[in-house]
Design brief:
The structure holds two protein chains of two kinds.
Chain A: E1 3-4, H1 17-28, E2 31-35, H2 38-75, E3 77-79, H3 83-86, E4 91-98, E5 107-108, E6 111-112, H4 113-130, E7 134-141, E8 156-160, H5 165-174, H6 186-195, E9 203-210, H7 221-232, E10 235-241, E11 250-257, E12 268-276, E13 282-291, E14 294-304, E15 309-316, E16 322-330, E17 340-347, E18 351-357, H8 363-372, E19 382-387, H9 391-394, E20 402-406, H10 413-424, E21 428-432, H11 439-447, E22 461-463, E23 475-477, E24 501-503, E25 518-523, E26 528-535, E27 538-543, H12 558-571, E28 581-582, E29 586-591, E30 599-603, E31 625-628, E32 630-631, E33 638-644, E34 649-656, E35 662-670, H13 683-689, E36 696-699, H14 707-711, E37 713-714, H15 716-736
Parallel strand pairs in A: 4-7, 4-9, 9-10, 10-36, 18-19, 18-20, 20-21, 21-27, 28-35
Antiparallel strand pairs in A: 1-3, 3-37, 5-6, 7-8, 11-12, 12-15, 13-14, 13-16, 16-17, 22-24, 23-25, 25-26, 26-27, 29-33, 30-31, 30-34, 32-33, 34-35
Helix pairs in contact in A: 1-2, 2-15, 4-5, 6-7, 8-12
Chain B: H1 3-6, H2 10-14, H3 19-32, E1 46-51, H4 63-69, E2 73-77, H5 78-82, E3 84-90, H6 104-121, E4 125-131, E5 139-142, H7 147-155, H8 166-176, E6 182-187, H9 193-205, E7 209-216, H10 218-222, E8 229-233, E9 239-242, H11 244-268, E10 272-277, H12 282-299
Parallel strand pairs in B: 3-4, 3-6, 6-7, 7-10
Antiparallel strand pairs in B: 1-2, 4-5, 8-9
Helix pairs in contact in B: 3-6, 6-7, 6-12, 8-9
Classes of the chains: A alpha/beta, B alpha/beta.
Chain lengths: 748, 300
């Protein structure tokens, strides 16, 4: 069996009747010749009539065949490559990989990248359904490629293509939308590689219908390897680009609490970052903010340069403890999916801070406690707890957001270990020295040549010898979050701080350039005053003087309160990583089986009003999912797992305590920020990156299914030879059947 | 070809409307090209004297002999004893075919009249019998110059019919002309051949010298037709619709057989035979005739 490149031209086969028609017309239009020598004519006819009729019939058939050959030549018949295909034993395997990452939602004019992709696939389906040979069709979306556990992630898998296939495919595509996931072609290509039946000799065509965003092709080595494997499996690779050009796009790429104390009743800062993925400057970008669904004053970012990100912080205040939602949005642009971002902040009633004071009267701790929690109408959300050094020996420290040591003369080894562990796990440690501070202990146990908690070696208590008449501040601070609030010449509070004594560091000590130790503030004589060190996930900030106004008068200066609150914010652990849940990840919740029943209900966001890429309604109130938590693999607690989050927004997990009280946990899922970058890889760049891989590159608008390649060999050339042979045969036969006068033309 | 002969082509002759003028033009043109013709004058040479018998033309009495011997003797010349030519002209339907300047009918008429003119000019007696299914008329043998008009008017046959029985006509001629003479048949011979040969044989048996001018059109000899054609019989009611290219070979073969048969038949009966195309110059036929006469004279 064969097919045609231009099957519509086959209507031209009706022209085969033209020679017959001409013959009939000629019969009607014959000349009449009165003839004398009829007897010879009659005799000739009697003798030759059978042969003549056969000859003429054959001539007529040849002429009809010539017309048919011309029509077939123009229609370009596609013959199968091998005899086996003629016998129906050879098939063509078509694998279409459809990019449904949310960047495919890129809209322009009245279309979108995804709509263009669907049109391309529809064209493929229509063309294949017109092909008579044995074919199978597989359609896989990028977002589903990784679902190995689901069995058959493909929308069509090895589907035999029949005449109605085009319509079935069209129906299926009609319900498809871009997903909100950010997935590259890698998984889909690997899946295609796995599906190709390499043992059987069959034709394979792999179509990669995508928007070819630059971020998906940043590291094309793996992709090139997979493509090379497909290439070596003799699969024809066709890359179809569905976007006409890179469009400008603004995206909210971050919405997260800034580092600092977050507690109920105390204001804290959130940061929202808007990235301009376009090539033009974006002016006056308005960010609409919501707190627990209530619209709050919006932010305006005056200018975002091309390719730049601008972060604005805004103050958030929640009266009550618990989980609160914060939403942000910007006005619509070509890609709407990344114009939304959500965050959950879980506010405690207060933030516990542990203050360990080596002095009996705990005067240093009291000063800091007063600074962190002034009391009265002023709420900082910080709950300072003052303890003696022995508290560190055997008490859990995890619940404290920061721990401060004041004038601690000695710490037991368990306490040092506990503190080190606490810091390494992300805790913040502030250390002030004092009269009890012994340099030998600090250097041996806490500094440990730079490996311990204390950031610098100490020598001894030293008096700051300065000429007080000489104008100048005792403290010289660097540009650091703790002191940044004092930046600016007008602020003279710090200038009023006077330091009498301090614990000196060795004269030649300077932090190693490669270490995480930095001097944040120095005394007038350049001796270190405030030194920072990072250890593990945590931070340590050490002061070489007292907190209380013993060796200095800082605690009496208003700048002390400000600096200590900033110090507390700096030492507080970073915002929970939970804030960065990405669409496509499974919805998981760890629960305590002793406190909660195993049944967990999931309510997905319903306010988006969109559908998932699957074409299914987003599970909302009416489609609440219920699952039973299963024991965690580690043996600790239970874990409730729901399938992946398909859309961005706030997901609610409803729990029931063992005493039948309902509790709600909220999880924010956001789209991958980088997917909003609509820059594409051009064909030339792609060629460079995929060097050595044979492929065809098409733009969606120009893409036409090449039926020649689908079916095999274009028989046009053979048809041309056949036509020439027919015409030669016709001429020979016509010559033999006609009279050719040697000089004068035949009478007609 | 000499200039004079160029004007003897049928195309040129066709332009002369009157048949007698045509004949004169042809013959004079022909004779002007034959210098010192060996035939000229033979017919007027003195042969013998014979005693006058009533009925003889008084113009032929030799008065010199009467003056010497007082007896009436008449001179006998060659022309009187040599030629009594009867032109047997086929004017049947099949002769009406013509693809060139003249139809076969026109051609044979021109040829016959030219020959009559030549003969009459040489004082020979000329008769003429146009025929189709029957003899349309019988012009008696005469030697007068104005006898040419009788021949011309006899040849003017408007409604041709098919020739059915040539044998009957030839027999009729044989009976009508008991004296030996020359019978010149102008025909396409598309007729019953056995009958034709029997008739010719009869003429020969009666002592006539017979000459056949077999006149055929170029189309009939070459069959150069192309394209769908319906051939309708001029003498038969049949027709054939065909592609003539396909039938040509068979036609020419059949025609060749016919010509061979005619040629053999004539040879068998010692009949002079000349195949004449209607595109041939008309003097060719005259030349053939004179050549024939020379042979006849030598035989005699």
């Amino acid at each position: 069996m064969s097919s045609f490149v231009n099957p519509t031209l086959l209507w031209g086969l009706a022209l085969v009747g033209v020679p017959v028609l001409i013959h009939l017309i000629n019969l009607l239009r014959h000349r009449r010749v009165p003839w004398a020598a009829m007897e010879f004519l009659l005799e000739s006819q009697r003798r030759n009539s059978t042969w003549i009729k056969l000859k003429q019939l054959f001539l007529l058939l040849l002429r009809m065949a010539a017309v048919a050959a011309v029509v077939l030549l123009v229609a370009q018949p596609i013959g199968c490559n091998q005899l086996g295909r003629f016998l129906g034993g050879r098939k063509t395997q078509h694998i279409v990989l459809l990019d449904d990452s949310f960047s495919m939602g890129d809209r322009w004019a009245n279309t979108s990248a995804f709509e263009e992709a669907k049109k391309v696939i529809e064209r493929i389906g229509d063309e294949l359904s017109r092909q008579p040979m044995s074919q199978t069709f597989t359609l896989l979306r990028f977002s589903r490629a990784g679902r190995a556990a689901d069995g058959s992630p493909a929308d069509f898998y090895e589907e035999r293509v029949g005449s109605d296939f085009g319509q079935r495919l069209r129906d299926r595509l009609a319900g498809m939308r871009p997903s909100q996931r950010s997935v590259g072609p890698d998984a889909a290509l690997r899946a295609a590689d796995g599906w190709i039946d390499k043992e059987h000799d069959e034709d394979r065509v792999v179509y990669l219908v995508s928007d070819f965003r630059a971020h998906d092709w940043q590291e094309p080595e793996d992709l090139a390897k997979t493509l090379a494997r497909l290439d070596s499996a003799k699969a024809q690779l066709r890359l179809v680009n569905c976007v006409d050009a890179a469009h400008a796009n603004l995206a909210i790429t971050a919405l997260e609490p800034l580092r600092g104390t977050r507690a109920a009743g105390a204001p804290f800062y959130m940061g929202v970052t808007v990235t301009n993925f376009g090539s033009d400057v974006a002016d006056s970008v308005t960010v609409v903010l919501q707190e627990d669904g209530r619209v709050r004053p919006s932010l305006t970012i005056d200018r975002i340069g091309p390719g730049e990100s601008e972060t604005r912080r805004f103050s958030v205040y929640f009266e009550t403890a618990g989980e609160h939602t914060i939403g942000s949005s910007i006005s619509s642009d070509p890609l709407a999916t990344d114009n939304l971002r959500f965050a959950i902040v879980d506010l405690p009633a207060s933030v516990p801070v542990l203050l360990i004071d080596g002095e009996r009267d705990q005067i240093h701790a009291r000063y800091l406690a007063a600074a962190l929690a002034p009391g009265g109408a002023v709420k900082t959300g910080i709950d300072p707890r003052i303890e003696s050094p022995s508290y560190l020996n055997n008490k859990p420290l995890d619940k404290f957001q920061a721990i401060y040591l004041f004038d601690v003369g000695h710490l037991d080894q368990p306490a040092i270990d506990a503190l080190e562990k606490y810091v390494r796990q992300g805790g913040g440690l502030g250390i002030f020295v004092g009269e009890n501070t012994r340099a030998a202990f600090y250097n041996e146990k806490l500094y440990r040549d730079g490996a311990g908690l204390f950031p610098l070696p100490l020598l001894a208590k030293t008096q700051l010898l300065v000429d007080r008449l000489e104008k100048g501040a005792d403290l010289e601070v660097s540009d650091h979050p703790i002191f940044r609030v004092f930046a600016g010449e007008r602020n003279s509070y710090l200038a009023a701080v006077s330091v009498d004594h301090y614990m000196a560091a060795p004269r030649r000590w300077v932090p190693e350039a490669t270490s995480t130790t930095h001097v944040l503030a120095r005394l007038r004589n350049q001796a270190p005053f405030c030194v920072e060190k990072k250890l593990g996930e945590g931070r340590i900030v050490a002061f070489t003087s007292t907190a209380a106004p013993v060796w200095n008068n800082w605690a009496r200066n208003p700048s002390f309160v400000v600096a200590m609150l900033e110090l507390q914010s700096y030492l507080a652990p970073p915002p929970s990583l939970d804030a960065n849940r990405v669409v496509g990840a499974p919805i998981e919740l760890q629960i305590d089986p002793g406190h909660y029943q195993s049944e967990v209900r999931l309510l997905a966001p319903t306010d988006r009003g969109s559908t998932t890429a699957d074409g299914d309604a987003i599970p909302g109130e009416s489609s609440t999912q219920v699952t039973s938590a299963a024991p965690h693999e580690s043996g600790q607690g239970m874990r409730a797992v729901f399938p992946e989050a398909t859309t961005s927004g706030i997901y609610e997990l409803q729990l029931t305590t063992t005493d039948n009280k309902a509790e709600v946990r909220r999880l924010a899922f956001n789209v991958e920020a980088d997917e909003g970058n609509l820059n594409t890889v051009g064909p030339e760049e792609l060629r460079t990156r995929l060097e050595g891989v044979a492929y065809e590159y098409h733009d969606a608008a120009d893409f036409r299914v090449n039926t020649q390649d689908l079916a095999g060999t274009n028989l046009s050339q053979w048809m041309l030879y056949l036509l020439v042979a027919i015409l030669l045969g016709e001429q020979a036969l016509a010559y033999s059947a006609s009279y050719h006068p040697s000089r004068e033309g035949a009478r007609s | 070809m000499s200039d004079s002969k160029r004007f003897l082509h049928p195309e040129a002759i066709k332009r002369i409307a009157r048949l007698d003028l045509r004949a004169r033009y042809i013959v004079e043109g022909f004779l002007s090209g034959t210098h010192r013709s060996p035939y000229f004058g033979q017919s007027v040479e003195f042969a013998e004297h014979r005693e006058y018998t009533p009925g003889d033309d008084l113009r032929h009495i030799d008065w010199k002999v009467w003056g010497k011997q007082d007896r009436y003797y008449v001179k006998r010349y060659e022309e009187e004893t040599n030629l009594r030519s009867t032109l047997l002209v086929d004017v049947s339907g099949s002769m009406r075919y013509g693809s060139g300047a003249m139809t076969k009918y026109e051609y044979v008429c021109t040829l016959a009249v030219s020959l009559a003119y030549l003969l009459l000019r040489q004082q020979d007696a000329v008769g003429c019998i146009p025929f189709d299914e029957t003899a349309r008329s019988m012009v008696p043998l005469r030697t007068k110059r104005n006898h040419l008009q009788s021949v011309i008017s006899a040849l003017d046959v408007s409604e041709p019919k098919q020739k059915t029985d040539v044998h009957r006509i030839l027999r009729q001629v044989a009976e009508s002309y008991p004296r030996r003479g020359v019978i010149i048949l102008f025909s396409d011979l598309l007729t019953n051949r056995p009958g034709l040969f029997r008739g010719l044989q009869l003429l020969r048996q009666r002592g006539h010298d017979v000459m056949v001018f077999h006149v055929m059109d170029d189309d009939e000899l070459d069959f150069p037709f192309n394209g769908p054609t319906r051939f309708e019989g001029l003498e038969v009611p049949e027709f054939i619709t065909c592609n003539p290219r396909a039938l040509r070979e068979g036609y020419l073969k059949a025609l060749g057989g016919f010509l061979d048969e005619v040629r053999r038949g004539c040879r068998r009966h010692t009949i002079d035979y000349a195949l004449v195309r209607t595109s041939d110059p008309l003097d060719a036929a005259l030349a053939a005739f004179l050549s024939y006469r020379l042979r006849m004279h030598h035989r005699a």
